Amino acid sequence: MVNYIIRRVLYMIVTVFFISIIAFILINLPPGSALDAQIQRLRQQGGDISMQQINDLKERYGLNDPVYVQYLKWIGGAIHGDFGQSFTYNAPVGELIWSRIAVSVILSLFALIFAWVVAIPVGVYSATHRYTVPDYIVTVIQFVGIAIPEFLLALLLLVFAATVLHMDAGGLNSQQFQNAPWSWAKLMDTIKHIWIPVIVIGAGSTAWLTRVMRANLLDVLNYQYVQTARAKGLKENVVIWKHAVRNALHPLIMSLGTALPTLISGEVIVSIVLNIPSDGPLFLASLQTKDMYLAITFVLLQSVLLVVGNLLADFLLAWADPRVRLE
Amino acid sequence: MAETIPSAQSTEIRPTGEDNVIEVLDLHVHFFTTLGVVRALNGVTFKIPRGRVLGVVGESGSGKSVTGFSIMQLVQHPGKIVKGQILLKARKDDQPINILKYDRHSQQMRNIRGNEVGMIFQEPMTSLNPSYTVGNQIQEAILLHQTPDKDEAWRRTVDILRRVGMPNPERIARSYPHELSGGMRQRAMIAMALSCTPSLLIADEPTTALDVTTEAQILDLMRELQKDIGMSIMFITHNMGVVAQMCDEVVVMYLGRIVERASVEEIFYDPKHPYTVALLRSIPRIGLSKGEKLEVIKGGVPDSYSTVTGCPFHPRCPNFMPGICDKVMPAETPIEGNPHHTVRCHLYPGSAAEAEVETSGLAPGTAPAAS
Ligand SMILES: Nc1ncnc2c1ncn2[C@@H]1O[C@H](COP(=O)(O)OP(=O)(O)O)[C@@H](O)[C@H]1O
Ligand SMILES: [Mg+2]
Which of A181, A249, B26, B90 has the fewest CB atoms within 10 Å, measured from its CB? Predict the structure, then answer.
């Protein structure tokens, strides 16, 4: 077991390392850099920039080195938590990123919890009431949930919140708390706002998980051991929840591994539409402006989340299914 | 979902005065599928005397499992018990009760399942839940019916595992099903079914999936436990060889009807129904010379949506008599001089006397009888 964990962690480190190399190369492929854009801007502001100044800037950001040296310098810093400088914001990447990553992770976790808490009971109900009217209704809602674009759902909820609930929707906080330090009142205010992005981000996976849950449970209900449980004299509720659902969860747990990064990248549009200070919009902007170190740090962190998510999912699966051995 | 239709009570058949653990009277089960109605059981009547083993034999699809599940009221959707009575007399001095009066989800019905009537299935590989230990699953039944005390229930779990011949029962109790072999799992299933000392055990092809050596061990074990506990067994199988080892009495089923019933000796030495004869011919025998072919019953079981007129076996019967077998449904008739041996076949006098002409038509939208 300990051996297994050590091996997995080593694999994870190697994986992330390779991803970072490939991402670094890819981001460097298109011509030009954020520096060029910055020079452009300085020129427009009137100042004439000499070659000397440009070279100074390049030197400062290490752009004169060959790519592999740039990479080594960056990864060397990254290991110590120094992710380099953002060209466009003229600030250390780490400073820009942490609060936003935190918001993203919190949003995604809530969306994940929301999806599971809704999908499991609804999926179970749907499967145990197959071909009844409620099952059909659930099915229709599911397809809408999968098909509806997130920005549209976000807009609909905004309108709903504004007109029906009369709240100042959008963003994670009301005006007066926007820049306030964290406090009890601000926390409550956040909770009042967070449900909209959570629903929007979670809607697609909720619908999908409901579908998966229903299909799996229908499969499991055909297994002999479900009849065995009934033949013991157990209540139908116990048969369903203890004996069937438990075995129908495995594919859901396996999907957890990929859920976290998907959710995090899935909230880009939502965050833009809802004006939420998460990492999505910043990531998008960094790609547009070729803000190299910012972009690559995002890629790195997302791959870390992916491998960690996978490891957690494997542990959960081993815990849920005794036939799975970790070795 | 499948409540019995009220008419089940209207045609009450009086129970006999004998000491039978279970009496099934004129049981009809239909499956209401989207393709039409499947008449899985068409008036099945039998009884199992206390402490005896009844063999239920017949090809696959003849309704053996549905009969077993009916006794538990666990016939699966879209199946419904549409008519009949099932009288349970759990103990010698009890009054027989018609369990079909109870709703299938009722407390009374749940008290019968696992407690008065136990059941084991064909597939030991899938009949235990892979997510729980063997002990947990047995203990669950004991906690439900016998004692609320967890430690006591666990002690009994280990006891019953020892009783079914498990080496190191403490360890087995803490094992998961996938850690056991097929034979071990079937022992565990038997332990579970017997954990509450039921008065009737329904064994649905319990050894079909096992190899011959393991099968022999499991059959020995069941025989031994049956004698010790004094329970009755409804032993479902399509294997006549197993019947010879296990059973006291036999009913032969074909397409949802009992076509012959007799003691095990008479079934083997004096079979009457051509179908029984054919089933017996299909057992591999020691002494069968190499070149000799094992007989198979010609034709297949007709598709289940259609109703054959006359005797349901006539399209495959070697003794087919045109004009009668394909027109008139034979009635159940006792063999001359032996009221306990009955047969449904026109070869035997008296069978057409009170015969019903089968009029129940084809289910809508289905092909006529297969040949
Ligand atoms: N779920 C079901 N849906 C439709 N028909 C069924 C279903 N289960 C059983 N039947 C019908 O009942 C008949 C008897 O089945 P069964 O009792 O399982 O036969 P066996 O003698 O092999 O145990 C089958 O031929 C089939 O037509
Ligand atoms: Mg069967």
Answer: A181
